[in-house]
Automatic annotation (TrEMBL):
Organism phylogeny: Bacteria, Pseudomonadati, Pseudomonadota, Alphaproteobacteria, Caulobacterales
Keyword Amino-acid biosynthesis: no
Main location class: cytoplasm
GO cellular component: cytoplasm
Record field: catalytic activity: [protein]-L-glutamate 5-O-methyl ester + H2O = L-glutamyl-[protein] + methanol + H(+); L-glutaminyl-[protein] + H2O = L-glutamyl-[protein] + NH4(+)
Xref: PROSITE patterns: CHEB, RESPONSE_REGULATORY
Leader sequence residues: none
Subcellular location: Cytoplasm
Protein encoded by which gene: cheB
Domain named CheB-type methylesterase: residues: 140-339
Official protein name in the record: Protein-glutamate methylesterase/protein-glutamine glutaminase
Keywords: Chemotaxis, Cytoplasm, Hydrolase, Phosphoprotein
GO terms for MF: phosphorelay response regulator activity; protein-glutamate methylesterase activity; protein-glutamine glutaminase activity
Length: 347
């Protein structure tokens, strides 16, 4: 079935470039374009598209305001098209937190349209198959984990892709300052990961930083894999972050499989978690972790934006239990606790 797309951007040139990139794929058809949210609103009513590509800076109403209305009144899959600047990254992260499925960067003086839109068709296809829900009022802050202490030396590894921004914010916002040393690979452009780490740091009781070469894994700290040129690994008797320059693995750099595989070799108490995302990155690495004695969790189908990575991991036996997003933070902390209350034996 052909995926029907509405392109929304105030630049006629950009609308043309996005349309051309999408129409090259026989499974996608651009059924209309709009120069601002007012035009887009009428086009949505008239054309009923499967997916919307949405600019952020537009006249009459900016993209974030329009996205908020979409997610509240008529939820549908949205892929943001943003400038890959620091300011653009922060606004795009806000859009992903609000319910946009994914984002791509715009061409610039240093980035051609072919380079900027290399993954656009894949992301539009993933968006078309995603689960998008009505925007709900913000949930109350999670209750603090009084007297929580992670087990000594415990390492937690988390992998995510499409839909992962919202999932990671939900989970890590509930983490206390005494959480286990945590390493995270989220598929994300290089200019986004620093802003994402800062956003998580503001919402979590833990200290969240973009991972750097040689940084020691400390309790109460969360390390986010930098996007772009390296994979995040952990290694050593006293584990430290390693940023390894090598080819893509499972189609990604950084790769969740690389992170999970390195954690599996640590010979430490460990927990692995695989969240919403397209494809299969992380499945084989999580299986390595489970075979090495790790406890493992996967996000369940009903709460995933895209049930791809967790599905593959579950099907190959890498996932011990699947849980909805709302229950994952508590389950993770319990598995990593010095005094677990509800953890069950591995299946």
């Amino acid at each position: 079935m052909t995926i029907r797309v509405l392109v929304v951007d105030d630049s006629a040139t950009m609308r043309g470039l996005i349309t051309a990139a999408l129409n090259r794929d026989p499974e996608i058809e651009v059924i209309g374009t709009a120069a601002d949210p007012i035009e887009a609103r009428e086009a949505i009513k008239r054309l009923n598209p499967d997916v919307l590509t949405l600019d952020i800076e537009m006249p009459n109403m900016n993209g974030l305001e329009f996205l908020e209305k979409i997610m509240r009144l008529r939820p549908m899959p949205v892929v943001m098209v943003s400038t890959l600047t620091q300011a653009g990254a922060e606004v795009t992260l806000a859009a992903l937190e609000m319910g946009a499925v994914d984002a791509v960067g715009k061409p610039s003086a240093h980035i051609t349209a072919a380079e900027a839109f290399a993954e656009l068709t894949l992301k539009v296809k993933a968006a078309a198959g995603s689960t998008v829900r009505a925007r709900q009022p913000a949930a109350p802050a999670p209750a603090p984990h009084d007297n929580y202490r992670a087990a000594e030396g415990h390492v937690l590894a988390i992998g995510a892709s499409t839909g992962g921004v919202e999932a990671l914010l939900t989970i890590l916002s509930a983490f206390p300052a005494t959480c286990p040393a945590t390493v995270v690979t989220q598929h994300m452009p290089a200019t986004f990961t620093g802003s994402f780490a800062a956003r998580l740091d503001r919402s979590s009781g833990a200290t969240v930083r973009e991972a750097t070469e040689g940084a020691p894994l400390l309790p109460g700290h969360i390390y986010i894999a930098p996007g772009g040129e390296t994979h995040l690994e952990v290694a050593g008797i006293t584990p430290r972050c390693r940023l390894v320059r090598s080819e893509t693995v499972s189609g990604h750099r950084p790769s969740v499989d690389v992170l999970f595989g390195s954690v599996a070799r640590l010979k430490k108490p460990m927990t692995g978690v695989i969240l919403t995302g397209m494809g299969r990155d992380g499945a084989s690495g999580l299986l390595e972790m489970r075979q090495a004695g790790a406890r493992t969790l996967g996000q369940d189908p009903g709460s995933c934006v895209v049930y791809g990575m967790p599905r593959v991991a579950f099907e190959i036996g890498a996932v011990e239990r699947q849980l909805p997003l709302s229950r994952l933070s508590g389950a993770i902390l319990d598995l990593c606790s010095a005094h677990p209350r509800h953890a069950t034996s591995p299946a």
